[in-house]
Design brief:
Number of helices: 10
Number of strands: 20
Helix content: 10-25%
Order of helices and strands: EHEEEEEEEEEHEHEHHHEEHHHHEEEEEE
Oligomer: single chain
Shape: globular
Radius of gyration: 21 Å
């Protein structure tokens, strides 16, 4: 048995125990930090470092398996802050962690090396969630009520595809938990005949490049308790979640539907958008891009300007709002659809009161004020035309 020692910090325990939020009914609500709400897995050479939190200061445990083979059993000293260093495997590894009184979790870590594909054909049903911003409970509720996941968060949507249109991070209280949920759901859907797609939004780019303006106080507290900067939870090469996020596309096409977080108005191909975004996230500069002050000794100012001009461009796929804010860009939208052999563009980012069809049905905007409470459904008929529906939090379906 291997013991990995942690320091018990009283300040963090006080924050963990008493840090509360109030909902619209002014009912105090305790923040969740244990289990996957506070799980952070870093990559350090040929090892993972697993960090987790527990709701009471007690001994922690961690067990690892690969298939039916038990790989290791570890314990940690009495604390609310725990970490264990385990070997990195070139195959999926199951990790069980927690403490005797609760806050336990299980996660399957899958080695991430390949970029996600960004073009798919022959899909009959496509569900789309716009910006979800850490609203874990709402996302689970709408997916359960739409019969896409069961009570154990396992995929039951058969061959359907589910698209998250980016901005799963920032603003909300449970961004880390939501990210682990999507990470796991991707595996579950693949095992049961479905497909999960996550497109990068501007807030994923911001967090990974160290622009932390919109991190919620509760989520920042998770990083504080682990004694790392918040960006380290999603570092694009040195964390499991960051490495996974960096494989995600900037734009996606399913049959004749084009997806992007903000919207595409420039003439580049999907391959160009996605290659450029991926190449930038893999550079050492990217994780320092928005640091203040910027380290111009270690990194090139010219390269920094190049990355910022693309990743933070208001006319780029992560930030563009023009299609939703005006109704005068029809010729540009037509050109983009023609250039990409598409008939419909679906976007998030810019808020609309409810999921809306714009530009005579050529564009659908999905980012609603309460993140995660409405979902778009597109189902294909025999003539390859998609029927359009809006689904609310309770699973009620109406024609769009």
């Amino acid at each position: 048995m291997i013991f990995v020692f942690n320091l018990f910090v009283p300040f963090y325990f006080l924050a963990f125990s008493f840090f509360v939020d109030s909902n619209s009914n002014n009912i105090p609500q305790k923040y969740h930090f244990d289990g996957k709400y506070g799980l952070y897995v870093s990559i350090e050479g040929d090892h993972y470092q697993v960090h987790w939190l527990t709701s009471a200061p007690e001994e922690g445990y961690l067990m690892t398996h690969a298939g039916k083979e038990e790989l290791g059993l570890y314990s940690t000293p009495k604390s609310i802050i725990h970490k264990v260093r385990i070997p990195l495997l070139d195959q999926p590894m199951d990790i069980d962690f927690g403490s005797p009184s609760g806050g336990n979790g299980q996660i399957t870590i899958v080695p991430t090396y390949k970029r996600d594909a960004y073009e798919f054909k022959g899909v009959d049903s496509v569900y789309v969630l716009g910006d979800t911003h850490g609203n874990f409970e709402e996302v689970v509720q709408i997916l359960q009520n739409s019969k896409l996941i069961d009570k154990n968060h396992q995929w039951i949507g058969e061959s359907a595809h589910l698209v998250f249109l980016g901005d799963i991070l920032d603003r909300g209280m449970d961004a880390l938990r939501l990210t682990w949920f999507i990470y796991e759901l991707e595996q579950s859907a693949a095992q049961h005949g479905g497909q999960i797609h996550l497109i990068l939004g501007n807030h994923e780019i911001m967090v990974m490049s160290n622009d932390l303006r919109y991190v919620s106080a509760k989520e920042q507290q998770v990083a504080n308790m682990h004694q790392v900067s918040y960006q380290q939870l999603y570092h694009p090469t040195r964390s499991v979640l960051g490495r996974w996020l960096s494989t995600k596309p900037a734009a996606l096409k399913i049959d004749e539907i084009l997806f992007a977080h903000g919207g595409i108005i420039m003439g580049s191909s999907l391959k160009s958008f996605n290659d450029r975004a991926y190449d930038y996230t893999q550079t050492p500069l990217f994780s320092h891009l928005m640091e203040q002050p910027f380290d111009s000794v270690s990194f090139s100012q010219v390269e920094r300007k190049e990355q910022k001009d693309y990743l933070y461009d208001s006319f780029g796929p992560f930030w563009f709002r023009g299609y939703v804010q005006t109704d005068t860009l029809g010729s540009y939208l037509d050109a983009i659809l023609l250039n990409n052999k598409a008939k419909l563009h679906v976007v998030g980012h810019t808020t609309v009161p409810s999921i809306a069809s714009l530009y005579k049905g050529k564009l659908i905007a999905t980012n609603v004020p309460k993140a995660g409470t409405e979902m778009l459904l597109l189902t294909k008929s025999k003539r390859s035309k998609y029927h359009r529906f809006r689904i609310n939090l309770f699973g009620e379906v109406v024609v769009l």
